[in-house]
Amino acid sequence: MLDWIKALSGYSQEAISGACEEYIRRESKRRPTPADILSLIGNSRTQGADAGTGDRNSLSVDERRKLETEILPRARRLLDVPGLSEHARKTLAFWGEQPKGNTQ
Questions:
Q1: Quick one: angle between helices 34-51 and 13-26, nearest 10?
Q2: Shortest CA distance to 56 belongs to which of 19, 87, 97?
């Protein structure tokens, strides 16, 4: 257990959960090792950085629902918040969304 804690302590719960879910989809008959999960976390970061845009088709139904009902609406609201508007713009651009009614 300490190996797992040590290996994954620098990553968010969301990144770890996502990697675990991906592992279960790929390897349902073998238990993962910390290295397996780290590899999937690394792959998801690399793919996101290289792709330049998000692929909604690669998301699960729950992930897509969360994106469309929580993440994108929140990003649209943050467009008018100084200091967060750039992050909001990048989030929307990553998912192929255009800011509506905002000309900043």
A1: 100
A2: 97
Q: What is the pTM of this model?
A: 0.48
Alpha-carbon distances of 57 from 11, 24, 28, 53, 65, rounded to whole Å? 25, 19, 22, 12, 12
85 Cβ neighbours under 8 A, 6+ residues apart = 78, 79, 104
Give the tens place of pLDDT for each residue, 37-58: 888 887 665 454 444 678 787 7
Burial-class residue 19 by CB neighbours within 10 Å (0-12, 13-18, 19+). Answer: buried
Distances (CA, A) of 78 to 12, 14, 24, 56, 104: 22, 21, 34, 21, 12
